[in-house]
Amino acid sequence: SNIVRMSSGIQTKPKTAVEKSKTSASASSPEPAVKPQSKPSDKLNPKTIDPFGAYSQPPSAFAATYAKGGIPCRLVHGSVKHRLQWECLPETVPFDPLLVTFGEGLRETKHPYTFVSKEGFKELLTVEGATEKTIPLLPRLIPALKAALADSDDEVFGRGLDALVQLSAVVGPALNDHLKHLLTNLSRRLMDKKFRDKITVALQKLEQYGGKATVAIIKSKIPTYCSI
Q: Where is this region: Disordered (predicted)?
């Protein structure tokens, strides 16, 4: 054996007794494979997270319409204040379906959709003849406002509340038939101190624009309301 090792040029180190015992133990009784537990850092492993996952989600209806050029206005960044630039006069824009689209966009949380939807809704309601154009759309506008008022995001709720007051100022008593569907969410938010005063002012505006019949509707959902 010495001659073979010398001729091949390979020198083997004899195993110690400890190494022999380990080898024999592992061969006689193999241990079952244990699956390693996942670590918190594994969540950050780029192999398990798709960096493009956020972009694979389908855009909202408003964002999709905006991307296709279906919104005839764009955000103009000013040094002090932002504004909308319309491709044509707002008076010439068909309210159906644009006003409804703006209403649905009130739930957006990304820029520039948040500003475009809020400001577009407001500016459309200020054009001449807005009352006659808006009243037929109330059955489709109310679900959009209800969704905004029910949203857990404070900014979305605030935009929905402002839009409700703006809508009431335009359609007046015509809103009374739909008001009950919106007051439940206002009643819940009254428990929040940071919205209590703003909601109270909004209810007073609804009474002002809706007339005496509005008071009974409000009290049916918010008994603590005090008429102005």
A: 1-50
